[in-house]
Amino acid sequence: MSARRVLLTTDVVGGVWDFCLTLATALLERDAVCVTLLALGDPSRDQRDMAAALGVEIRSAPLKLEWMEDSAADVAATALLVADVAREVRADVIHANQFAAVCAPSDVPVVLTLHSDVLSWRKWTLADASVPPEWDAYATLVRDALRRADSVVAVSRFLADEVASLYGVRRTINVIHNGWPAPTLSEHVRRGTLLAGRVWDAAKNITLAADAAYGWAPGEVAVAGEQVHPQGGIAPLPAPLQPLGLLPRAQLDAWLMKTAVYLSPARYDPFGLLPLQAALHGCALLLSDIPSYRELWTGAARFFTANDSDDLRDQWQRLLTDDALRTDLAHRAAKRAATYTPRRLADSYHAQYREATARIAA
């Protein structure tokens, strides 16, 4: 049985949207593959325009994600919605990117991609591997989804191992690294440092850069990302960090094109599409030394001890003042990034779809 029609679920909060739009576009370029993108949440005008420009059909429903407060009713509604849309579009396979979407009452085979999860987030961000009572229902949902899915994929070996350990998984978790299209580069004078990501997410650890910048002049240090938490509250950005807000894709690409150093002080980032995008745009990478970044960028980035502002300051100063080192690292990063292609991503997932549908047919 072939997988000609794919229902791809996404959310609109973080990198899952970028992953899904990239994969959907690459799948559409394959012969006889149709993709329907089902967004949980309210896509922005920019996101809708991006999907339309790429020829991706998008549907949406303003539902909370499973990690949000008071989301139990929305989790149940998500499962029913996915089943309904799968029937309507006659999907051959459901590619779920949220745990709730796996639990749809449907006979359609399901491929689940793990992008992150709350327990590994807590372990690496808060140094707490426990499961507080308020997360019991979430952990039960994750275990149920991992059991139900016909195929499970993680975006990194790091995340696959973490999920297997934290949730007691006794099944194969495949690893497919993300991909991103190579941009058309133009000559720019590169200067300054850029950070990007959800400022309100403690895992991104954005303010470590402000600590590391204290007492010297790193030049322009810009931060692209949402400061307003989806459930309320604003995350501050101390000086010298310059907030750019949540940028449309074209504006973020323009910043990456003229930036010398892309900095990620993350405590936890299971894959990290933003470092990949930065590398493809010609930035040198300065990354915290965490397992996922080592998995993806060893030999192609400058690493500093995670959550250590002093070591970050030392590595940052050297990278900004040593033009030869920075140029060499930018070339290494671009070469590595060129291996993470949308075509490889689509081919790998299409193989997962075929295997999942073949198992059901058998």
The string of secondary-structure elements, in order, is EHEHEHEHEHHEHEEHEEHEHEHEHHH
What is the count of DSSP helices, taking H or I runs of 4+ residues? Answer: 14
Termini gap: 9 Å
Query: Residue-averaged pLDDT, rounded?
Result: 93
Structural class: alpha/beta
Number of strands: 13
Summarize the structure in words.
This protein has 362 residues and is α/β, with parallel strands linked by helices. Helices cover 43% and strands 17% of the residues. It has a 7-stranded parallel beta sheet, with helices on both faces. A 6-stranded parallel beta sheet has the order 10-9-8-11-12-13, with helices on both faces.
Could you give a quick summary of the protein structure above?
This protein has 362 residues and is an alpha/beta fold.
SSE layout:
Layout: E1 5-11, H1 15-28, E2 34-40, H2 45-53, E3 57-61, H3 72-88, E4 93-96, H4 99-102, E5 110-114, H5 118-126, H6 136-148, E6 151-154, H7 157-166, E7 174-175, E8 191-196, H8 208-212, E9 221-224, E10 241-245, H9 249-258, E11 259-264, H10 273-280, E12 284-288, H11 291-297, E13 302-304, H12 309-321, H13 323-337, H14 342-361
Parallel strand pairs: 1-2, 1-4, 2-3, 4-5, 5-6, 6-7, 8-9, 8-11, 9-10, 11-12, 12-13
Helix pairs in contact: 1-14, 10-13
List its salient traits:
362 residues, alpha/beta, 7-stranded parallel β-sheet, 6-stranded parallel β-sheet, 17% strand, globular
